[in-house]
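User: Predict the complex with magnesium ion.
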Amino acid sequence: MIQPLLSLDHLCFKVGNRTLLSDVEFELHPGERVAILGANGAGKTTLLEMMVGLNLPSSGRVVAFGKPRRSEADFREVRARAGLLFQDSDNQLFCPTVLEDVAFGPLNLGRSGPEALAIARRTLDELGIGSFSDRITHKLSGGEKRLVALATVLAMEPDVLLLDEPTTGLDEATQELLTEHLLRLRLPLAMVFISHDAAFVERLANRAVILKNGTLIKSVLHRHPHVHAHSHIHVHPEGEEPRHPHPDDLAEASHDASPMLKEQSEPSVTFKQAGILVEDHDQ
Ligand SMILES: Nc1ncnc2c1ncn2[C@@H]1O[C@H](COP(=O)(O)OP(=O)(O)O)[C@@H](O)[C@H]1O
Ligand SMILES: [Mg+2]
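Assistant: Here is the predicted structure with magnesium ion placed in the model:
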C-alpha cells in the first residue's frame, strides 16, 4: 500500500483544562483534495496547524513524509514540503513588497537570489497578479493579500498544500480563478483545505471530513441531481438593458420572481448560490 504523505495518529490537543481535539485519526494520500468541514471554533485551524508543528499534540503523533515528527527541527523539514496558507494573511506576509514576500520562501529553501525572484514573478503571473510585484504588502486589500499569501506558499512548490479558508475575502471572479488554478496545479500532490464555501468545496474536494466534538468524522462526499428553484439578485446600472426579464415581465411566470436591486454606475453582476450536501453517516 502507498504510504500516506501525512498521518495523524490518535492525536489529542488540550488548551488548559479543555480538550479541543481528541483521538483524531487522519491520513492524506497523493491525489487527495480533502475538505475539513465544521462549525466555527470546532478546532479546524488548530488541527491544520498541528500538521506542520505550529501546535504540538498533548498526546498522539504526527507522521509526515514517512517519519514521525516531534521536534521543531523535524517540523522545519515538514514545513519545507507542506505549505500552509494561514487563515489570517497578515500572519503570512512580512516583507515590504509583494515580490520580496513571494521570493522569501524559495530563497529560504536555498535558491539563488535571481532564481527566487524568477520563481516569484512566475508564481504571481500564474495567479494573474503579476502587476502586484512592486506593491507595498501591508497596503493591499484583504482579498489581494489572500492571493499574495497563496503565492508565497505556491512559490515553495509544496508537495502538500494546506489551505485555511482560502476563498474568504475574494470576489466571485477571483474565487473562480483560484479554484481553476488549484485544479490545474501539478504540485502539490495533495491538499487539505478548510472552507465554509459550498461552491468551492464542491469544485475542489474529492473527500471530506467533519470536525465535530473534537474529533474527525469520516464523511461521504457525493453529488446527485438536485432540481430546485431559487432566486438571484441582479445588479445593473439604471437605464441599461438588463440581461434578464424584470419582475413585471414575469407576472405570468410560475416560479418565484427574483427581487431586483438597482444601483447607479455599478457593473452588471449576478450573485449565484451553489449547493452542497454533506451527509454525516455517523450520526
Ligand atoms: N493555543 C491556544 N490557546 C488558547 N486557545 C486556543 C488555542 N488554540 C486554539 N484555541 C481555541 O480553540 C478553539 C478552536 O479554535 P480554531 O482551531 O481556530 O477553530 P476553527 O478554525 O474551527 O474556527 C477556539 O475557541 C480557540 O480560541
Ligand atoms: Mg479557523
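Residues 44-45, 87, 164 surround magnesium ion (ligand 2) (CB under 6 Å).
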